[in-house]
C-alpha cells in the first residue's frame, strides 16, 4: 500500500523520465550542435551577424607570381602596389653561391612587358625589341605606338644544359636565346600562364632568384645588370624604396643609438651625365653602398653602387660609378661611415 502511494505521487516525474528516454533527439545548446571545427568563433556562423565583406580581387598583384615569392622572400614594395622579391628568408648569403652552378630562374615581369603592333621603323630604331609575328614586345620601355597588351610576363633562365622541352608550347609566346655570360634564355608569356611556367621550372630542379641573389651572381662573375644602371628608371624605383626603409628604421631608433648612415640618390647625382661603371676590389676591410670613392690625390671621383664578400676569391668586391676618366688597376680609396679609409683597385671597366 505504501509503495502504490509512492508511485502515484511520483507518476508525473516517472512519465517525464520515460518520455526523455524514448525521444532520440537530444536537447542541447546552439554551440553544442555545431561541428567541432566551427565551435570557435561560432558567432561568425550566425547569419544575423555576418558582415558584408568585399571579396579581394584574384589578380590584384602586378607580379603574377607574388604569392609564391611572398612566402619565401622578403618583398620590397615599389610604386603602384608592385612588390618584388628582394632577399631570400635565409640567413646565409652563401646559399645562392652554392646554387650558382645549377639551373636558376628570375621573374623580371615587374619591369613591364608591353606588346605593340609591328612597325619596321620602330624595329630599326630599337634593337632590343622582340619580334613575334606581326607584333613587337618591349621589356621595361614604353613606346609611342598602338598598345595591344601590357599584361605580359618575362622569365630569365640561368645555368647550363637547359632543357626547354619541359615547357608546353601553349605556355609561352616566345623563347629568346641570349648572348650573355649568365643569362641564357628569356621566356615571354601571358599572365595566366606565368605561374604554370614557374611551377614547371621549379618541379624540374630550377631555383627562383631574388634581386639581391642576382646581384650576388653578377658579383661572382664581375658583370653588371640593368638594375645597376643608376640612370635607369627601375634603379630609381628600387633605390628610393630601399632608402625609405632605411629612413624609417633610422627614425625608430633612439637618437643615442643611431649610427652614421649615408643615404644618397645616385639617380639624381648622375642624371644627364656620362658615367662609367667599374668593378673594384678592396684590399682590406669592407665598404657599403653610397660610399665615396676617392683617387690617390684624395679627389672625389664616384660612389659605390653595391659591394659584398666574393666567395670565389675570398675578398670584398663591388661595383662603382663615376663621371671621371679611369683606368684598369688604378688605385682607389674608400671612405666608410667611421671616416676610415680603405684602399683598393679597379679590376674591370664597362
TrEMBL record:
Location relative to the cell: Nucleus
KW Cell membrane (keyword) present: no
Any single GO CC term annotated in Swiss-Prot or TrEMBL for this entry: ribonuclease MRP complex
GO biological process, alphabetically ordered: tRNA 5'-leader removal
Record InterPro entries: Pop1, Pop1_N, POPLD_dom
Keywords from the UniProt entry: Nucleus, tRNA processing
Sequence ranges assigned to domain POPLD in this UniProt record: 185-266
Residues annotated as domain Pop1 N-terminal: 6-58
PANTHER family in UniProt: RIBONUCLEASES P/MRP PROTEIN SUBUNIT POP1, RIBONUCLEASES P_MRP PROTEIN SUBUNIT POP1
Protein name, as recorded: POP1
Amino acid at each position: 500500500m505504501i509503495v502504490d502511494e509512492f508511485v502515484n505521487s511520483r507518476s508525473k516525474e516517472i512519465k517525464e523520465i520515460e518520455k526523455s528516454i524514448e525521444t532520440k533527439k537530444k536537447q542541447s545548446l546552439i554551440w553544442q550542435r555545431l561541428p567541432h571545427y566551427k565551435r570557435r568563433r561560432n558567432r561568425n556562423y550566425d547569419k544575423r551577424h555576418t558582415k558584408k565583406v568585399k571579396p579581394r580581387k584574384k589578380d590584384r598583384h602586378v607580379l603574377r607570381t607574388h604569392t609564391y615569392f611572398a612566402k619565401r622572400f622578403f618583398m620590397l614594395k615599389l610604386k603602384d602596389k608592385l612588390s618584388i622579391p628582394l632577399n631570400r628568408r635565409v640567413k646565409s648569403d652563401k646559399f645562392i653561391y652554392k646554387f650558382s652552378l645549377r639551373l636558376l630562374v628570375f621573374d623580371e615581369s615587374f619591369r613591364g612587358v608591353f606588346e605593340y603592333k609591328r612597325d619596321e621603323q620602330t624595329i630599326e630604331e630599337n634593337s632590343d625589341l622582340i619580334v613575334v609575328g606581326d607584333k613587337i614586345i618591349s621589356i621595361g620601355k614604353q613606346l609611342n605606338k598602338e598598345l595591344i597588351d601590357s599584361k605580359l610576363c618575362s622569365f630569365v633562365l640561368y645555368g647550363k644544359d637547359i632543357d626547354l622541352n619541359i615547357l608546353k608550347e601553349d605556355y609561352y609566346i616566345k623563347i629568346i636565346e641570349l648572348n650573355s655570360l649568365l643569362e641564357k634564355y628569356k621566356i615571354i608569356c601571358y599572365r595566366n600562364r606565368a605561374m604554370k611556367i614557374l611551377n614547371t621550372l621549379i618541379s624540374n630542379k630550377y631555383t627562383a632568384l631574388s634581386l639581391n641573389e642576382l646581384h650576388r651572381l653578377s658579383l661572382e662573375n664581375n658583370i653588371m645588370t640593368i638594375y645597376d644602371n643608376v640612370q635607369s628608371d627601375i634603379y630609381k624605383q628600387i633605390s628610393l624604396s630601399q632608402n625609405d626603409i632605411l629612413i624609417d628604421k633610422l627614425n625608430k631608433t633612439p637618437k643615442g643609438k643611431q649610427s652614421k648612415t649615408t643615404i644618397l640618390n645616385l639617380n639624381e647625382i648622375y642624371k644627364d651625365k656620362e658615367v662609367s661603371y667599374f668593378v673594384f676590389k678592396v684590399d682590406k676591410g669592407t665598404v657599403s653602398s653610397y660610399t665615396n670613392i676617392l683617387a690617390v690625390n684624395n679627389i672625389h671621383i664616384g660612389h659605390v653602387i653595391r659591394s659584398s664578400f666574393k666567395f670565389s676569391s675570398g675578398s670584398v668586391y663591388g661595383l662603382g660609378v663615376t663621371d671621371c676618366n679611369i683606368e684598369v688597376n688604378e688605385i682607389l680609396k674608400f671612405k666608410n661611415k667611421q671616416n676610415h679609409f680603405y684602399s683598393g683597385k679597379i679590376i674591370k671597366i664597362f
